[in-house]
TrEMBL record:
Main location as per UniProt: mitochondrion
The UniProt record lists the keyword Metal-binding: no
Name this polypeptide is given: Small ribosomal subunit protein mS23
Organism for this UniProt entry: Dichomitus squalens
GO cellular component: mitochondrial small ribosomal subunit
Similarity field: Belongs to the mitochondrion-specific ribosomal protein mS23 family.
Length: 285
């Protein structure tokens, strides 16, 4: 016999099948669904709420003439205490907390309810969550109003933290007196890594600047050839052109040469070259 394909009817059908003996053993989900039944259809008729997670002063059910389909807000007492606690102790949010180790659901502490009268019963180094849970415990099991419960939890939390700080300072002083040398703390190690990274950036920038300077230092040096006179706006070039002198821009180096007729000196080679029509200048080595 198939069950109905409606979410809010599955557990009811399973209950009837168990009662008639068609199912010999309860399914694994049966008790959980009975404790938290699904929303009835349509969603405009949500089930009634309890005061456990309902804001104070809010109705437990929506009015019959309400046209809102949004669920009622969920609010716990711990939310208000946690918000106020971290507003009073903002630096507690910066304490190191691992998200990997111990990532399991903690078992309930044996000291709870009416037995939990002092925060120190949970340890000498309580966490912010311990203080918040202690304030809720005072509010629920010791007939204290929320403000008084929060004030008592915060006072005991600060007292235990102060005791722990004093104990650590005394232990450190005793260890240093006996010759113990402590290494850098995690904060100092982190700052050293940051300074090392900054130095690499500075060295890289200095290297780039040096390389750029070296590249700019080398520049082309062009040796101007010809007469070292001032610029004549092309008049000297025009005069030589009219006289039939053809310019030779390449320098001429005259070295002594040995020929069949004998040794040709620099003076003789210079006179021979200067007699040519395209002579402009002879540079001797």
């Amino acid at each position: 016999m198939a069950t109905k394909r409606i979410a809010n009817q599955v557990h009811k059908q399973a209950s009837r099948l168990l009662r008639e003996g068609y199912i010999q053993q309860e399914p694994a989900w049966f008790r959980a669904v009975l404790d938290n039944p699904p929303l009835p259809l349509p969603a405009r008729a949500p089930p009634s709420r309890t005061r456990f997670d309902t804001p104070s002063g809010a109705p437990l059910t929506a009015p019959a003439d309400s046209k809102k389909t949004k669920p009622l807000p969920i609010k716990y007492v711990e939310d208000e205490l946690r918000r106020q606690f971290f507003r009073d102790h903002p630096f507690e949010a910066f304490r190191q907390t691992t998200l990997v180790e111990g990532a399991t659901v903690d078992t309930e502490h044996p000291i709870r309810g009416a037995q939990w009268r002092r925060l120190r019963q949970r340890g000498r180094n309580p966490s912010p969550e311990d203080a918040i849970r202690y304030a809720v415990n005072l509010y629920e099991h010791h007939d204290m109003d929320l403000s008084s419960a929060y004030a008592s939890a915060v006072a005991q939390f600060r007292s235990l933290r102060a005791e722990l700080e004093v104990a650590r300072a005394v232990a450190r002083s005793e260890a240093e007196h006996l010759g113990m040398e402590f290494g850098p703390s995690q904060v100092e190690i982190t700052f050293a890594k940051e300074h090392k990274a900054f130095r690499t950036f500075q060295e890289a920038a200095a290297h780039d600047h040096t390389a750029e300077t070296e590249r700019k230092r080398w520049k082309a040096v062009v040796e101007r050839e010809g007469r070292p006179d001032n610029w004549t706006k092309g008049q000297e070039y025009t005069r030589l052109w009219k006289e039939g002198v053809r310019p030779v821009y390449a320098p001429v180096f005259v070295d002594p040469q040995i020929k069949p007729e004998g040794l040709v000196t620099q003076e003789q080679a210079t006179q021979k070259i200067s007699a040519q029509a395209d002579f402009m200048k002879v540079i001797t080595a």
